[in-house]
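Fold this sequence, please.
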Amino acid sequence: MTRELATDAPFSQVLDLTELTTTDAETGRYAGVIAPTWTIGPKVHGGTMVAATAAAATRWLTEADESLARMAPIAASTDFLGAPDPGEVEYAVHLRKKGRQICLADVDLIQNGRTLVRTAFTFGHLDSAETRWSGPDTDMAAAPVDEAFRYSADSPMGKIVHVSQGAHMVIDPTWGEFLRGETGPPRLRLWIRPFDGDEADPRTRAAFAMMAADISPPVPMNLGHFGWSPTVQMTTYLRRIPAPGWLRVIATAREVGERMFDEDHLVIDSTGAVVAQSRQLALIPAAR
């Protein structure tokens, strides 16, 4: 497989897979490409890899049984064995359980013959009706406020977070003390929205919400800890298909320790519904 690496590739390209031949009837194999747009620094963004592997698992599940096409990856447990570079990747999908309510599948993301990311997926049916109960309302505006920090390609953040070249991304300055050279609690809030072409398809919006559940800068930045914060393990939940429009992302930590910190993401769509969540354990960089 050889594909051109576009620098301005839409998010939908991440989900565009080509089936590969295999001698193992129990394993689905697909090829894909992740463009440099979907990287943090030189390496592929973790949430993008979760969304891409979810697309491979969905494809194999549907091809195994068309009656399961309405199911979606409602939970993903991801371990990062290595850090893939942008470019060509392969996905190996193993269906572990097939049921009417719940299906299970494992996916390996492979690059240059090495498995670099391993994700266990739980498939089920997404919520679509009105919620029976929801937690306290957030005071975060549904769309970016005028004074918000907007990523740009020539800004210090934009030069590192290349994902901002593939989607609209804005940081809420009221929680982003590090932007002013100050310190504050380990928490951040962002707005993110796919470009127009990626917003039309509901399945792409759902995959984008899974990606957005890992989009915040590491919250210890508000404590003065800057640098690479490699994720040890991440669990992602997809709750419903987002409505078109801005997604609100609220990132918080319960504890920032000597070596590790936890970070939770809550993703809310333009209607105020929770569409995705995540929790990850990551390594903290040394303070400057």
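Helices lie at 11-14, 46-64, 156-160, 196-199, 202-212. The first strand starts at residue 18 and ends at 19.
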